[in-house]
Amino acid sequence: MDVKWLEWARRIQALSKSGLTFSKDAFDIERYKELEQISAEIIASYSDLDVNETIALFSKEKGYQTPKVDVRGAVFQDQQILLVQEKSDGNWSLPGGFCDVGLSAAENIVKEIEEEAGYKTEARNLMALIDMNKHAHPPQPFHYYKVFIQCEVIEKVEADRLETTQAQFFPKDRLPRLSTNRNTEEQIASLFAFYHSEDKRAIFD
Q1: Residues 13-32: what's their mean pLDDT?
Q2: Residue by residue, what is the 3-state secondary structure of the chain?
Q3: Which of 105, 185, 186, 202 is deepest in the core (most CB within 10 A)?
């Protein structure tokens, strides 16, 4: 999505973090802190967050800023795809989340599917690696790369249900209301297309 104010705020925030990480000059450090404040004010002016919430969000970020990696699992069964209902907004998404340090993307998604949906799976194919900015997600403070991995069910297990309320398979033409921060209808349609294609060529943008 071409949301220029958000793009500028993210870039200012990333520059401020890099400056605070590498600068040794006290005056430069003050300038970089001011840049962080400006980026928080921009986001607060155009979103539901206030300045203090935004600064608190940014304060958790340390070091040189890079896109965050969000991994999502695509599990198919009887021409349907597995979705989980998110506790945070009541809407539905592919199981997944941020990649944990120490786990590969494949290991991470297997863990997420088991915890959120109650299925032990095996990761089979990289389906897509996409830039969130090029898709119809709502504006978000950070820049994300989203990794979609096809997984096959091994067995049903007990889910932790810390972040989700239920899991269910849905056909492509009868999807529930999606959590568009996490995935879009267009993305799920592209995963169905990948699943039915013969060459299994990963999507990227």
Answers
A1: 88
A2: CCCHHHHHHHHHHHHHHHHHHHCCCHHHHHHHHHHHHHHHHHHHHHCCCCHHHHHHHHHCCCCCCCCEEEEEEEEEECCEEEEEEECCCCCEECCEEECCCCCCHHHHHHHHHHHHHCEEEEEEEEEEEEEHHHCCCCCCCCCEEEEEEEEEEEEECCCCCCCEEEEEEEECCCCCCECCCCCCHHHHHHHHHHHHCCCCCCEEC
A3: 105
The pLDDT of residue 147 is 97
Instruction: Give the per-residue pLDDT at 1.
Output: 43
- Tell me how far apart the alpha carbons of residues 161 and 86 are, in angstroms, rounded to a whole number: 10
Backbone angles phi, psi at 68, to 5 degrees: -80, 155
Residues above pLDDT 70, as percent of the chain? 99
pTM for this structure? 0.77
> Could you state, in order of their start, the residue ranges of all structural domains in the chain?
4-59, 68-204
- For residues 171, 137, 144, 47, the Cα torsion angle rounded to the nearest 10 degrees is -140
Residue 81 phi, psi dihedral angles, 5° rounding: -120, 145
**Architecture category of domain 68-204 in CATH:** Alpha-Beta Complex (3.90)
- β-pairing, 119-131 vs 203-204, is parallel
Contacts of 171 (CB under 8 A, 6+ apart): 79, 80
